C-alpha cells in the first residue's frame, strides 16, 4: 500500500472531484458518512455523549457533517468549534449552516474560553486540524489538547491526530492531541509508523472515500507499506525437480567466546527459510555446540579458539551473513576487512560487522552491490551519523543507500527498508520481539533468501515481513513476555503457510489495523 504525501492527497481529491464530476462538498459528505457508519456500527445508538471538536477548515467540516448524521440518528452530541482562525473553509461554512438549520448551535472555543467538562466514559471526536496543518497550533489550542487528554475520554481522530504534521515531527508533545484511534481517509500516513510520531495514535484504520483508484495507482510514492499483498508477487514456489543445490549455499560468519548462540540462531533461521545448504564459519570453541545443536549445518572453524582471526574458505557460498555474535577483537576486524576486500558475492552485514564498517568507512567501497545492512538504531547512527528527527534520519539513510548502493534495513517496531530513494515500511511484528537474538534470526533469514535467488531488496522485504509475521503468529501461544528468538525461528514455517491463507472477511466488529 502506498503512503502518499499531503500534497498527493490534495491532488487526488482534486482529480477525483473533476473526474467524478462531484463537488468538494459531496466528497466531504462521503467522508462524513464513512465516519458515521464506523461509529454507528460500534455504538448501535448508545447514548454515550459524543463531544465533537471541529476546526475551521475541511477537517472541521468533516466533523460538523458527522455531527449532523449523528444528530439525525438520535445520538447524544455536543459540538464545539475550535476557532483558531478567521479563515473558514467553504465546506466548513456549508456544514455549519446545515447544523444551524437543525437548530444545533456549536460552542465556540477561543483563547480564554472555559474548557468544557467531559467524563472519562464519554467520547471525543477530534476534527480540529487535518492534513492542512502547516505550523504549530497556538498556545491556547495546545492547552485545549492538554485538557482533552486529561479527561481520559476516548479520542477518535478524524484523518490524523490534530497537531500532527504529515511530513515533519512536532516540536512539543503538547501540541498534538493523542488519539486512541485514527480514521485516516483513503490511505494511512507515514507518520503513523515512525518512532517519534507513531505514538500519537494507538491504532488506525483506513476509510475509503472513493478517491480515484487509477490516480492512486499511477501516482508514484517515496514510501509504501509492506504487507502480504506486496510480498506475494515475488514469492518463489519450490520446484518439483529441484534439489538442495537449487536453493543456494549460505554461509554465516560470526560468533565469539560467549556469543555462539547468535550464530546458532542465524544458521537455524537460514535453514528454516529454505536455504539449500548452510555452513557456519566460527571460532573453534563453537565447534561442538554448533554441531550438536544444528545437525543440518556444516561447520568450518577458525584457527583461533575464542574469536575469528582469519577467514579462509574452502567453499563458494551463494550468500554470506556476516557479523552475528562476532565481537570486536582486533584480529577479527582485520579478518573481516580482508574478507570483504576479496569477496564479491551477495552479503548481509549485521551487528559487529556493521560497527566495524562504521569505524572503517573505507571498507564500504568493498561491499558488493546491493549489500544488505541490518542496523538497529544505534548501529545506524554509527553508520550515517546522528539525525535531527525521524524524517532527517530517513533522508540521510536514502543518501547513504544511494551513495554506497546498499539496502538499509532499519530495525524497529516498524522496520523500514531503504533502497536508494524508496522506503518500505513493514507492518508485521510486535513488542514481544524486543528480546535478544531476534535480530540474528532476521540476518539468517535474509541470507537464506538471497541464497535461494531472491534479489537482495526482495530478500530484505520478504525476510522482514516473514520475521514479523512469525513473531505475530508465535506470540499468540507465548504472550509478549515469554517470546524468545528461538520461537521466532519456529514460527517461520507457519509464516510461510500464512502467506497463502485466504483472508477471512473481517466482520465490522473485529476489524483493526491493516
Ligand atoms: N479536500 C477535500 O476535498 C477533502 C478533505 N477532507 C478533509 O480535509 C482535511 C484538510 O482540510 P484543510 O486543507 O482545510 O486543512 P485543515 O487541516 O482542516 O486546516 C485548516 C486550515 O488551518 C490553517 N492552519 C494550519 N495550521 C494552523 C495552525 N497551527 N494554526 C492555525 N491555523 C492553521 C491552514 O490555513 P492557513 O491559515 O495556513 O491558510 C489550514 O488550511 C483533511 O485532513 C480531511 O479531514 C475530507 O473532507 C475529504 C475531502
Ligand atoms: N517493539 C517491536 N515491535 C516489532 N518488532 C520489534 C520490536 N522490537 C524489536 N523488534 C524486532 O526485533 C529485532 C531486534 O533486532 P536487534 O535489535 O538487532 O536484536 P538482537 O541484536 O538482540 O538480535 C528487529 O528485527 C526488530 O525489528
Ligand atoms: K483531526
Note the topology.
Elements: E1 2-3, H1 6-19, H2 24-43, E2 50-54, H3 58-72, E3 77-82, H4 90-101, E4 107-109, E5 123-127, H5 139-150, E6 154-158, E7 179-185, E8 201-207, H6 213-218, E9 223-226, H7 228-231, E10 249-253, H8 261-272, E11 277-282, H9 287-293, E12 298-301, E13 319-322, H10 330-342, E14 347-349, H11 351-359, E15 371-373, H12 377-384, H13 390-404, E16 406-410, E17 416-419, E18 422-426, H14 438-451, H15 456-482, H16 485-490, H17 492-498
Parallel strand pairs: 2-3, 2-5, 3-4, 5-6, 6-7, 7-8, 9-18, 10-11, 10-13, 11-12, 13-14, 14-15, 15-16
Antiparallel strand pairs: 1-9, 16-17, 17-18
Helix pairs in contact: 2-3, 3-4, 8-14, 11-12, 14-15, 15-17
Bound molecules: ligand NPW, adenosine-5'-diphosphate (ADP) and potassium ion.
Ligand NPW binds at residues 13, 24, 27-28, 31, 55, 57-60, 62, 84-85, 87, 89, 129-138, 158-159, 185, 209.
Cofactor: K(+); Mg(2+)
Binding site for (6S)-NADPHX: 58-62, 130-136, 159, 262, 325, 376, 440
Binding site for K(+): 59, 126, 162
Question: How is this structure best described in words?
Answer:
By secondary structure, this protein is an alpha/beta fold. It has two domains: 2-220, Rossmann fold, CATH 3.40.50; 247-389 and 437-498, UDP-N-acetylmuramoyl-L-alanine:D-glutamate ligase, CATH 3.40.1190. Helix content is 39%, strand content 16%. It is built from 17 helices and 18 strands. The strands form two sheets. An eleven-stranded mixed β-sheet has the order 1-9-18-17-16-15-14-13-10-11-12, sandwiched between helices. A seven-stranded parallel β-sheet has the order 4-3-2-5-6-7-8, with helices on both faces. Residues 376, 411-413, 415, 429-431, 433-434, 436-440, 442, 467 line the site of adenosine-5'-diphosphate.
Amino acid at each position: 500500500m502506498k503512503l502518499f504525501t499531503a500534497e498527493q492527497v490534495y491532488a487526488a481529491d482534486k482529480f477525483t472531484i473533476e473526474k467524478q464530476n462531484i463537488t468538494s462538498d459531496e466528497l466531504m459528505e462521503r467522508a462524513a458518512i464513512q465516519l458515521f457508519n464506523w461509529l454507528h456500527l460500534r455504538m448501535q445508538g448508545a447514548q454515550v455523549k459524543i463531544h465533537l471538536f471541529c476546526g475551521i477548515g475541511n477537517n472541521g467540516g468533516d466533523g460538523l457533517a458527522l455531527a449532523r448524521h449523528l444528530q439525525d440518528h438520535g445520538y447524544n452530541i455536543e459540538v464545539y468549534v475550535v476557532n483558531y482562525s478567521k479563515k473558514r473553509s467553504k465546506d466548513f461554512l456549508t456544514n455549519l449552516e446545515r447544523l444551524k438549520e437543525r437548530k444545533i448551535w456549536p460552542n465556540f472555543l477561543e483563547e480564554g474560553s472555559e474548557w468544557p467538562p467531559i467524563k472519562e466514559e464519554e467520547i471525543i471526536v477530534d476534527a480540529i486540524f487535518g492534513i492542512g496543518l502547516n505550523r504549530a497550533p497556538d498556545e491556547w489550542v495546545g492547552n485545549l489538547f492538554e485538557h482533552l487528554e486529561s479527561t481520559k475520554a476516548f479520542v477518535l481522530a478524524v484523518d490524523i491526530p490534530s497537531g500532527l504534521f504529515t511530513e515533519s515531527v512536532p516540536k512539543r508533545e503538547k501540541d498534538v492531541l493523542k488519539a486512541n484511534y485514527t480514521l485516516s481517509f483513503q490511505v494511512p500516513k507515514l507518520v503513523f509508523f515512525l518512532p517519534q510520531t507513531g505514538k500519537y495514535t494507538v491504532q488506525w484504520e483506513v476509510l475509503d472515500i472513493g478517491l480515484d483508484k487509477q490516480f492512486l495507482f499511477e501516482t508514484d510514492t517515496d514510501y509504501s507499506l509492506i504487507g502480504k499483498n506486496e510480498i506475494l508477487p515475488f514469492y518463489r514456489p519450490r520446484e518439483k525437480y529441484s534439489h538442495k543445490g537449487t536453493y543456494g549455499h549460505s554461509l554465516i560468519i560470526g560468533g565469539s567466546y560467549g556469543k555462539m548462540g547468535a550464530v546458532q540462531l542465524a544458521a537455524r533461521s537460514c535453514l528454516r527459510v529454505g536455504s539449500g545448504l548452510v555452513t557456519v564459519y566460527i571460532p573453534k570453541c563453537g565447534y561442538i555446540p554448533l554441531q550438536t545443536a544444528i545437525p543440518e549445518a556444516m561447520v568450518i572453524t577458525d584457527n583461533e579458539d575464542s574469536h575469528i582471526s582469519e577467514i579462509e574458505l574452502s567453499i563458494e557460498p551463494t550468500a554470506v551473513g556476516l557479523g552475528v555474535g562476532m565481537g570486536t577483537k582486533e584480529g577479527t576486524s582485520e579478518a573481516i576487512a580482508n574478507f570483504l576486500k576479496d569477496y564479491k558475492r551477495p552479503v548481509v552485514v549485521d551487528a559487529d560487522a556493521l560497527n566495524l564498517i562504521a569505524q572503517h568507512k573505507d571498507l564500504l567501497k568493498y561491499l558488493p552491490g546491493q549489500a544488505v545492512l541490518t542496523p538497529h538504531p544505534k548501529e545506524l547512527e554509527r553508520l550515517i551519523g546522528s539525525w535531527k528527527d525521524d524524517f532527517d534520519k530517513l533522508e540521510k539513510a536514502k543518501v547513504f543507500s544511494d551513495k554506497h548502493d546498499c539496502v538499509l534495513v532499519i530495525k524497529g517496531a516498524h522496520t523500514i527498508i531503504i533502497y536508494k530513494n524508496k522506503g518500505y515500511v513493514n507492518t508485521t511484528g510486535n513488542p514481544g520481539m524486543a528480546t535478544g537474538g531476534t535480530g540474528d534470526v532476521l540476518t539468517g533469514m535474509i541470507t537464506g533468501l538471497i541464497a535461494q535467488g531472491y534479489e537482495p531488496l526482495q530478500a530484505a522485504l520478504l525476510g522482514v515481513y516473514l520475521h514479523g509475521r512469525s513473531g505475530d503468529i508465535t506470540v499468540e501461544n507465548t504472550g509478549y513476555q515469554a517470546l524468545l528468538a528461538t520461537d521466532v525461528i519456529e514460527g517461520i514455517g507457519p509464516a510461510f503457510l500464512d502467506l497463502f491463507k485466504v483472508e477471512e472477511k473481517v466482520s465490522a466488529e473485529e476489524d483493526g489495523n491493516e
